[in-house]
Amino acid sequence: MSPTIADLALEVRSKNAGPFWVTMELFMRDAAGYRIVADEAFVDERVVASLYGIDADTVRIFRIPALNVVKISFPRPVPQGSLRDRDIHAGQHHVPLALLPVPTSE
Q: How confident is the model at residue 86 (pLDDT cuts 50, 70, 90)?
């Protein structure tokens, strides 16, 4: 079984970034893990778009090497607190990304 992003991270979390956006944060354990998830060949706008069923043009990725952190933001599927909002705090949006298998060098 391949390791996942969650296996390399101290924490993977998601939260509201206002009523119309979600932000996910990948706090990596070390620089080696950061290099893996920060690699645009692994996690890019298209990958995030496919995981969340959104338009890749709306995804914003911020790589912060000094902190070993990658932040990803995209519009919420529905506004926070609206009738169809199933996760008002956006606290569960991180799960598909956290479970993404890390490529191996085999």
A: confident
